[in-house]
From TrEMBL:
This is TonB-dependent receptor. Residues 419-928 form the TonB-dependent receptor-like beta-barrel domain. Residues 1-25 form the signal peptide. The keyword Repressor does not apply. The keyword Membrane applies. A motif (TonB C-terminal box) lies at residues 945-962. It comes from the Bacteria. Keywords: Cell outer membrane, Membrane, Signal, TonB box, Transmembrane, Transmembrane beta strand, Transport. It is found in: Cell outer membrane. Belongs to the TonB-dependent receptor family. The lineage of its organism: Bacteria, Pseudomonadati, Pseudomonadota, Gammaproteobacteria, Alteromonadales. It is a multi-pass membrane protein. It comes from Pseudoalteromonas translucida KMM 520. Residues 55-167 form the TonB-dependent receptor plug domain.
């Protein structure tokens, strides 16, 4: 293997001249000085090979050993515990969206996974989510990870598009020797939930040490976990008025709970207006008439004494516990195969090759099909399945039809199965081409193939025909519609849980499928020189190069999914791609050294020019200062402008037809509701659109045809990022360091969807006339002036701003005969604002302190090592959060739902011992004190997945190395 400055780089256990910590341990500090020459390495945030590990940007580093030693089944779950990362796509909430079960994506600062760039060895990786650039971190070989580096702030100038909020770079071990096998098995204390992971890795040098080759196999799996299987999540809660629960008036000034200032939290309570058997309602009044029994006869709905009109509480309450349909952990199986080799073709140049194959099978079981106060769920008086008692009730009340609110548990819970297969190949050559110049030429090709299967999917037309059952001339029960009968319609009895026949279930349900293929090809050439020329303060460093990237994504849906013929929404197909050619350079310029209060002052800059086949050209840049005040104290500052090109899904997602209920803002009745100024503006704009004065639409709250899908006219998002921080590493306290970094990210022209009614209103209420992007989404009949089509495309209209302070403290010391490694990493969030319209600075929501945007988060870890014994503790802290943003609470200080979750602490612990023979054992317990979920959450939401929904979880890990 190449014994050069490049190849030695990854062996340095250093980060950036300050302690960087994960939830587990701090990285080693990097200020190596003295006679020994420090080798050049590439640091995340810069492509310049630098002497020492001085990064121009704040970087958090997690060692690969820390990742493996947690006992976690997948990398993403470990990283999502860091304060800088949001749990937007973790395993716990991966069933929230179609096609995502079992996936784990990274989302820096909670501003969207599409704005976080994930790299492997500084190179791009093929996406796992169709139409995006988001990478499933579980496809990365955990046994080979040397470290993970996380940089905050716009880094597009260095790494390209998508690095709007930052970069997560997985650095793999270069040379792997020996045999390494591990097995991990975990068990939950509160439920039957289990998981397991097995890894095997083998590497060997060849050609007298000039080459190295290695392969690895990883397998991990987990079973699903339903809410009812965990006592924390099994209970259904409702918030009910004090008077309803107690039968007494609330005492003046009494607040029963911080979470519910005007209500009482009641367990074993829930909605009684719907049931598995079918709850009957009067279409004229909406009142409840009863509930079907198992034999289709009509019984009463028992609400008991505690009833607020929608919810009731036990005892004596016929509520449905909807948590029986909530899956809080998906089932999945995953296998990864990896191969890598490198060979010194000369003393200075090293050729390398990597190949991988990953397959994940994820499964998510959701709610059954349901109908709730739907006009499409009416049973007529002559329905053949009506029992005499139900018919008599209808006659008594003069009803020709009854409505049925039903959760169709007897039809089956909707099932989604996802199979994702990822292949990736990397080939390249790197090394020194002169004493000062280094290069890295690489070619990357990756492909992800995804199949989605949706079972128990109800075909709405078949369902409507099946429930309209009558007797034919022979006394047999058949579907009323003759054409439906000719096409195989089977009459369905929906009155009672289990009343429907299997034949009817087969007729009304189908299994729909969708397939996706994502391809990526990247060529990159990077050249670096850390001493391109000398200034009085030191050597100027340079890096530059070119990159060509080709991306494509195709999604094909079957006829049911594409047309929206089932209970699911219509799913548009996507067939698109783009290519981009980029040129970039970076300079590191030493300005001053060895003067009062300036040990060194280094200026960094980077510029990247990109030419896209879709949006044209775009430029990103970065400016930075690295100021070493004294050998103990350092300050750093960066200002950058990054960009994110619209992804394939946003540009080329297939357009599908739908409908929306809207009002025409140009009709005279709408104009009459405005002030004089507002009326004048709207009337002028309506006239400019060709709408005559006094226009009165023939449609009142009309359901109009809409078209939703990709927008090929989108432009890139642009962000401005600032980071400013200090690093203190005292000489008087060896092993101690502290950093504090302020960060601010402002994303403008954010790509965002918009409601159809808002499109109409914004078109005609613009003070600058009708030459705006909203009017272009509306089509009117030139003769009648009626709206005939609305387009619901995403637009570059929004803005998002986030800011906060990151803190890291590390202290390594010897005591009790061994060594301690202690660390703290925390984030204080200052603001998290979303502006639906970037041109309206007063129109925003500030989510700081709201679930998903916690004000304070932190991790504290203490690890002790004595010879072959290792003991570790870590505690994660999340401060109390609101469930409504500040403006929502101003509008409604006492909302009916829960308002707040309290502070949350969770502790993990482990004990391990490594024998001299190479055998090692570890026993660990996550959530050691069995900390329950706050409030009534199940821990599956985009924000609430930050809370553990499994409970105390023990694992045993065995390893063998030789």
């Amino acid at each position: 293997m190449l014994n050069t400055k490049v190849s030695k780089a990854v062996r340095l256990a250093i980060a950036f001249g300050a302690a960087s910590t994960a939830a587990f341990s701090a990285s080693t500090i990097a200020a190596q000085e003295g006679a020994e020459k420090v080798e050049r390495i590439e640091v995340t945030g810069s492509r310049i090979l630098r002497e020492g590990a001085i990064s121009p940007s704040p970087v958090t580093v997690i060692s690969g050993d820390d990742l493996v030693n947690t006992g976690a089944m997948n990398i993403g779950e470990v990283l999502n515990k860091l304060p800088a990362l949001a749990t937007t796509y973790s395993l716990a909430n991966s069933g929230r969206f179609i096609g995502t079960a079992g996936i784990s994506l990274l989302d820096l600062r909670g501003m969207g996974s599409e704005r976080t760039l994930v790299l492997v060895d500084g190179k791009r990786h093929v996406a796992s989510a169709p139409g995006t650039s988001s990478v499933d971190t579980n496809t990365i070989p955990s046994a080979w990870i040397e470290k993970v580096e996380i940089i905050t702030g716009g880094a597009s100038a260095v790494y390209g598009a998508d690095a709007v909020t930052g970069v997560v770079n997985f650095i793999l071990k270069k040379d792997i020797t020996g045999f390494n096998v591990s097995a991990t098995k975990g068990f939950a204390d509160n439920s039957s939930y289990q998981n397991e992971k097995y890894t095997l890795s083998y590497g060997k040098d060849f050609a007298e040490g000039r080459g190295n080759a290695a392969f690895s196999v990883e397998y991990n799996s987990q079973n699903s976990l339903n809410s009812l299987d965990n006592p924390w999540t099994a209970t259904s809660y409702s918030s009910m008025p004090y008077e309803v629960v107690t039968g007494q008036a609330r005492p003046d000034g009494q607040i029963d709970s911080e979470a519910y200032p005007d209500k009482i939290v009641v367990p074993n309570a829930g909605y009684y207006l719907i049931s598995n058997a079918g709850t009957v309602w009067d279409p004229n009044t909406g009142g409840i008439l009863g509930k079907f029994n198992g034999d289709s006869t009509l019984g009463d709905v028992y609400t008991g004494a505690i009833d607020d009109g929608n919810y009731c509480a036990s005892p004596g309450c016929d509520f449905i516990n909807l948590r029986q349909y909530s899956e809080i952990q998906p089932k999945f199986d995953r296998v990864n195969f990896n191969f890598k080799t490198n060979y010194d073709v000369t003393d200075e140049l090293n050729a390398y090759f990597q190949a991988k194959y990953s397959k994940t099978e994820g499964e998510n079981i959701g709610q059954p099909f349901f109908r709730f106060y739907s006009g499409a769920n009416l049973i007529k008086r002559d329905n053949a399945f009506l029992t005499p008692d139900t018919a008599a009730m209808m006659d008594e009340k003069g009803l020709s039809v009854i409505g049925v609110n039903k959760m169709y548990n007897d039809v089956g819970r909707r099932l989604e199965e996802n199979t994702r297969e990822t292949t990736r190949f990397v080939a390249g050559i790197q090394g020194n081409i002169s004493d000062d110049w280094s290069m890295d030429l690489s070619l990357v090709h990756g492909k992800s193939e995804i199949e989605r299967i949706n079972g128990a999917n109800v075909i709405m037309a078949n369902y409507a025909n099946a429930i309209d059952a009558i007797f034919d001339g022979n006394g047999d029960i058949v579907c009323r519609d003759a054409d439906a009968r000719a096409n195989g319609c089977v009459a369905a009895n929906i009155m009672g849980d289990g009343a429907i026949s299997q034949e009817a279930i087969d007729y009304v349900t189908t299994t729909s499928t969708g397939t996706s293929e994502i391809k990526q090809t990247v060529f990159n050439a990077t050249f670096s020189n850390s001493a391109i020329f000398e200034l009085p303060a030191g050597m100027v460093g340079f890096a530059g190069g070119v990159e060509y990237r080709d991306e494509s994504s195709v999604t094909i849906e079957d006829a049911f999914a594409k047309t929206g013929a089932t209970f699911f929404n219509a799913l548009g197909e996507t067939d698109g791609g783009y290519d981009v050619t980029e040129a970039f350079f970076e300079l590191s310029v030493p300005l001053i050294e060895d003067v009062f209060l300036i040990d060194t002052l280094v200026f960094d800059t980077a510029v990247r020019y990109a030419d896209y086949s879709t949006i044209g050209d775009a430029t990103s840049w970065k400016l930075g200062l690295d100021w070493t005040i004294t050998p103990e104290l350092r300050a750093r500052f960066t200002l950058s402008e990054a960009m994110r090109a619209p992804n394939i899904d946003e540009l080329f997602s297939g357009q599908s037809q739908s409908f929306a209920s809207v009002d025409d803002s140009c009709k005279v009745s709408e104009l009459d509701q405005l002030s004089a100024g507002g009326r004048a503006t709207r009337a002028a704009n309506c006239a400019a659109l060709g709408v005559p004065a006094g226009f009165d639409s023939n449609y009142d709250s009309a359901t109009l045809e809409t078209l939703v899908g990709g927008n090929p006219d989108l432009q890139p998002e642009e962000s401005r990022s600032i980071t400013a921080g200090i690093v203190y590493q005292p000489e008087w306290l060896e092993g101690f360091s502290v950093t504090a970094d302020y960060w601010e990210i402002d994303i403008d022209d954010t790509i965002s969807g918009i409601g159809f009614q808002t499109i109409i209103d914004r078109c005609v209420d613009s003070p600058t006339g009708i030459d705006n992007q909203f009017c272009g989404l509306i089509t009117r009949d030139p003769n009648t002036s009626e709206i005939t089509l609305l387009k619901g495309f995403a637009l570059n209209i929004a803005r998002s701003t986030n800011s906060g302070v990151d803190f890291e403290v590390g202290y390594d010391f010897d005591a009790l005969g061994g060594s301690f490694d202690t660390s703290f990493i925390g984030t204080y969030l200052i603001e998290s604002k979303d502006y639906p319209f970037s041109a309206e600075p007063e129109n925003y929501t500030d989510s700081e302190g709201v679930l998903g945007d916690e004000t304070w988060q932190g991790n504290i870890s203490v690890n002790y090592t004595y010879e072959n014994l290792a003991i570790g503790f870590s505690t994660r802290f999340i401060n109390g959060v609101e469930l409504y943003d500040h403006k929502e609470l101003e509008r409604n200080p006492n909302p009916s739902n829960q308002m707040r979750y309290g502070s949350y602490f969770i502790t993990d612990a482990s004990v391990g011992y490594n024998f001299d023979s190479g055998v090692g054992f570890k026993v660990g317990v996550d959530n050691l004190f069995n900390r329950q979920l706050p409030g009534s959450t199940t821990g599956t939401g985009a924000g609430s997945a930050i809370y553990d929904n499994i409970g105390r979880f023990a694992y045993l890990q065995a390893t063998y190395k030789f």
